[in-house]
Amino acid sequence: MNNAELNALKEEYVAFGAATPTTEFADRAENAELWDADGQRWIDFAGGIGVLNLGHRHPKIVAAVRAQLDKVMHTSAAVISYAPYVQLCQKLCQLTPVRGPKRKAMLVNTGAEALENAVKIARAATGRTGIVTFDGAFHGRTMMTLAMTGKVLPYKNDFGPMPGDVFRAPYPNPMHGISEEASLKALRTLFKTDIAPHRTAAIVIEPVQGEGGFYIASPAYLKALRALCDEHGILLIVDEVQSGFARTGKLFALEHSGIEADLLTTAKSLANGMPLSAVVGNATVMDGSGPNSLGGTYSGNPLSCAAALAVIEVIEEENILERSAALGDKLADRFAAWEKRFDRVGHARNLGAMAAFELLDSDGNPDPALTQAVCAKAREHGLILLSCGFYGNTIRVLVPITVEESVLEEGLNVIEGALEALC
Ligand SMILES: Cc1ncc(COP(=O)(O)O)c(C=O)c1O
Question: Entry's PANTHER family (predicted)?
Fold first, then answer.
């Protein structure tokens, strides 16, 4: 079936809220390129929204999934477990910056599910209920994670009331007028006005906000947040669903800060295209809830675990962390050049290959309409490009870290062409 025929099916049968606004349908994909149902080639700077740090269909990951497929496809880990589940938990405990001396992990399917479980674990371990999150945060689309998400449109608008005992502080964002001191002060105020610290189970933060706009919390800020949590016995949950698994030049963005979380959530590029997420944490905290209180029918599917074990090997074998840092440098150089050349481009930033810039109007304010126009122009020239951000004016690049040099150049030239045409 071609794009038009598939589009007709979509219009007729896919729920409006779940249907993609674009009219192409992916047919096959390889590393940072894909071909649609009409045979048109695309360069993929979205990477399945940060899921494909190792590219579409990395051969070693495909082989690992195939091999697992020939052994066991599903049992439900709640019924009978299997080697890849426990082997992956072991690896995650060895690699994740969470407090020891002993660490444990659990596996689920999506980022939102990991956050849901992190909250359950934190509440069980502390006997407290309050959860503090940040403006612009994105933690998922289930009801609890929607309550934790700090942006109404398009996520929360139609779906209230939200679960309670979720409180919000401003994310440190000096580019948009919130200094780190102001953010920390607001947290202390929150503890006076809305929830007592001794009723607060956890503060949940993305070290680099994903959907919120690729804003980066500095090492100093994260250290201060860690200290604030310790002062009050509050657990620090670090959400690395988007920033984790090599995107920022480290396995986890938190490693740039030198602090450790109590609980860390990971998903997306953890299994590079297979659905899988994890909560990794201090063993005492992780063991705080009763038997059979965590998990689900599909949690930690064997195929996904096999993929994740292969991902960890590939990251090491192919120097993916160094390549992520180098890709980040390249993107930063190019964005800086655009910032100089185009008045409407500003606030370029990156942590490794988690890189973004903003589009501004002639008064220097966020320009979401221009941002949409740049993404649309890129599509006209065969580049899949994503925007994001609290203000909807951030262009983010989540191209696979394994992208070929020539494909990267081609994609960046398409963005440059769009800026030339529109800025
Ligand atoms: C930081 C962060 N947390 C949680 C989620 C939710 O993940 P999922 O869409 O897999 O439920 C996302 C998704 O973009 C995310 O970026």
Answer: AMINOTRANSFERASE CLASS III (PTHR11986), LEUCINE_METHIONINE RACEMASE (PTHR11986:SF58)
| Class of 3-57+319-422 in CATH | alpha beta
How close is the Cα of 285 to the center of ligand 1, in Å?
A: 23
Q: Which residues does a 6 A CB cutoff place in the pocket of ligand 1? A: 49, 110-112, 115, 138-140, 206, 210-211, 239, 241-242, 267
> What residue spans in the chain does CATH classification 3.90.1150.10 cover?
3-57+319-422
pLDDT in tens, 375-418: 999 999 999 999 999 999 999 999 999 999 999 999 999 999 99
> Angle at CA 218, nearest 5°, toward 265 and 203?
40
What are the start and end residues of each CATH 3.40.640.10 domain in the chain?
Answer: 71-317
Tell me how far the alpha carbon of residue 419 lies from the centroid of ligand 1, in angstroms: 29
At residue 51's C-alpha, the angle toward residues 47 and 54, to 5°, is 75
Q: Does domain 71-317 have CATH number 3.50.50.60?
A: no
The amino acid occupying position 365 is N
pLDDT band of 21, cuts 50, 70, 90: confident
> Is 151 in contact with 390 (CB distance < 8 Å)?
yes
Best residue among 241, 243, 263, 272 to mutate for probing ligand 1's pocket (most ligand atoms within 8 Å of CB) is 241
pTM for the whole structure: 0.98
At 168, is the secondary structure helix, strand, or coil?
strand
